[in-house]
Amino acid sequence: MEQYLNVARYVLEHGRRKESRTGVDTLSTFNYNYEIDLRKGFPLLTTKEISWKNIVIENLWFLSGSTNIELLRQHDCKFWEPWADEGGYVPSAYGNFWRSFPAPNGTSVQTIDQVAWVLDQIKNDPMSRRHVVSAWAPSNAHDSQLPPCHAFWIINVQMDDENNPFLCLHLTQRSADVALGVPYNIAGYAFILELFAHLTGIQAGVFAHTLVDAHIYTSKPDGSLAEYDHVPGLKEQLTRTPRELPQLKIDSSIKSLDDIDRILESNIDEILDTFHLSGYNPYQAIKFNVAV
């Protein structure tokens, strides 16, 4: 997947040192954009191994709307642990606002299920340009320990040369950790695009990605915090030739959002049989430490 390697190469070559909230410096760039055509295969990185289980469970968790990481713990997915409170809750969890966005109504606050609305609109008004899902709720984000990095996404239907529709998804990401986060972001939103295509009967097409602040964590100029330096690992990836992309097949038993809630109660083998990835042949994993 050359698009990802191009991101890494660009930030390594053009990034400027910038202090970050974590205390670890980054090489930072502004406004990087690219596209990936899912009709050529599912974009799970092959230049290092990525956990397909983690991709599926995290994004089903998002789509469930839950703010508690117990489901992730059941399947040994640990990446949200640093941001959960003692009860296992993550107030800024993406799915919370996807499924229950606060909408003031006079003296009361109602909520809007953005995901259900967008799915309904794609089926009934596919050419609309209003299929938007926002994870950024200012009342939460302004005070959150970790406000949403992937701020909002848009579904859009286009037509191919034979006048057949195909479904596209554009993700705007305010903060993009190139080494650790971006490979999961690509695969996660490609998973959502494939799922929406499955549920609406419109072929999955292009995933487009805007990285507002694309950055690579690096050691301090004096060499300290080298354990968080992602530069060597990314340079190693750039020596690897991308391999053929895998294929995703979603079982016909998944017919609606209600089926997402049902499958979450299954064991991991059944979940991965339902969202079956074939032909994945990556290089070995590269370890990157997360800057919290």
How would you characterize the overall build of this protein?
- GO terms for molecular function: thymidylate synthase activity.
- This is Thymidylate synthase.
- InterPro entries: Thymidate_synth/dCMP_Mease, Thymidate_synth/dCMP_Mease_dom, Thymidate_synth/dCMP_Mease_sf, Thymidylate_synthase.
- The chain is of the alpha+beta class and 292 residues long.
- It has one domain (2-50, 110-278): Thymidylate synthase/dCMP hydroxymethylase domain (Thymidylate Synthase, Chain A, 2-Layer Sandwich).
- The protein is built from ten helices and ten strands.
- It has helices spanning 2-14, 52-64, 70-74, 94-99, 114-124, 138-141, 181-200, 231-237, 257-263, 268-274; strands at residues 16-18, 25-37, 101-105, 108-112, 131-134, 150-159, 165-177, 203-218, 247-250, 275-278.
- A hairpin with a 6-residue loop joins strand 1 and strand 2 (25-37).
- Helix 2 (52-64) crosses helix 7.
- The longest helix is centred in the middle third of the chain and has 20 residues, at 181-200.
Beta-sheet strand percentage?
A: 25-35%
- CATH H-level homologous superfamily name: Thymidylate synthase/dCMP hydroxymethylase domain
Q: Say what the CATH topology is.
A: Thymidylate Synthase, Chain A
* Total DSSP E strands: 10
The succession of helices and strands, N to C, reads: HEEHHHEEHEHEEHEHEHHE
Head-to-tail CA distance between termini: 28 Å
- The CATH class turns out to be Alpha Beta
Profile the largest sheet.
6 strands, mixed
